[in-house]
């Protein structure tokens, strides 16, 4: 009986870690704990806008440097810095009344903007972001560390515009689209 319990203990620990709650982005949260659930749109993102029952109002678009999109009947909408729910509400408000009685709008992210990794990795550059991305996975995408890399000296720059912040990170730190990861040299 004790042998069976000893075998199950590592499985229980692994399941507990797998299903542990993940912190969500809020106001002044620690930037290393931010999650994708309140993701802010910015240039480089590709979004889809669907208006149910109105195919001519549905579209897929890439957000350019201006952070604006041109939407039928509404015109230019400033999208940069909004999450998908905020953009949905903005489009509903613009369509409601003059064009539609009760528009049902869904905004989804088709492709996130890339993240960047530089410093002591074999292939620095920009890479496609995927939800659940960690620094460990990002380093693997960049063909691993160089021989001079320090796994303890990793920083991430995160944010939009003038609200960017840098923080020290480890191999398990989750990344967000647009993050800039820098791997420093080891002293020895």
Reconstruct the topology from this structure.
Elements: H1 2-18, E1 46-51, E2 59-62, E3 68-71, E4 75-78, H2 84-95, E5 105-111, E6 115-119, E7 125-127, H3 135-141, E8 149-158, E9 165-169, E10 180-185
Parallel strand pairs: 6-10
Antiparallel strand pairs: 1-2, 1-5, 3-4, 6-7, 8-9, 8-10
Number of continuous helical runs: 3
Give the distance, in angstroms, between the N- and C-terminal Cα atoms: 49 Å
Overall shape: it is elongated
User: What helical percentage do the residues reach?
Assistant: 10-25%
**How do the helices and strands follow one another from N- to C-terminus?**
HEEEEHEEEHEEE
- Major sheet: size, sense and barrel closure? 5 strands, mixed
Radius of gyration: 21 Å
Q: State mean pLDDT (0 to 100 scale).
A: 83
Structural class by SSE content: alpha+beta
How many strand elements?
Answer: 10
Widest sheet, order of strands:
7-6-10-8-9
Strand proportion, as a percent range, falls in 25-35%
Low-confidence stretches: 1-30
Description:
- The chain is an alpha+beta fold.
- The chain is built from three helices and ten strands.
- The chain has helices at residues 2-18, 84-95, 135-141; strands at residues 46-51, 59-62, 68-71, 75-78, 105-111, 115-119, 125-127, 149-158, 165-169, 180-185.
- The strands form three sheets. Strands 7-6-10-8-9 form a five-stranded mixed sheet, covered by helices on one side.
- The longest helix has 17 residues, at 2-18.
């Amino acid at each position: 009986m004790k042998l069976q319990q000893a075998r199950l203990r590592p499985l229980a620990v692994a399941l507990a870690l797998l299903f542990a709650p993940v912190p969500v982005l809020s106001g002044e949260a620690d930037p290393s704990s931010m999650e994708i659930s309140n993701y802010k749109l910015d240039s480089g993102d590709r979004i889809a806008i669907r208006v149910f029952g109105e195919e001519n109002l549905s579209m897929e678009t890439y957000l350019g440097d201006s952070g604006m999109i041109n939407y039928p009947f509404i015109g230019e909408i400033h999208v940069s810095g909004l999450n998908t729910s905020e953009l949905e509400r903005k489009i509903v408000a613009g369509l409601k009344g003059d064009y539609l009685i009760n528009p049902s709008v869904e905004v989804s992210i088709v492709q996130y903007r890339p993240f960047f990794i530089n410093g002591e990795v074999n292939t620095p550059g920009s890479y496609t972001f995927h939800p659940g991305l960690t620094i460990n996975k990002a380093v693997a995408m960049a063909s691993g560390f160089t021989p001079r890399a320090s796994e303890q000296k990793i920083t991430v720059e995160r944010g939009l515009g003038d609200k960017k912040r840098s923080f020290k990170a480890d191999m398990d730190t989750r990344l967000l689209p647009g993050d800039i990861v820098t791997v420093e040299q080891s002293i020895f």
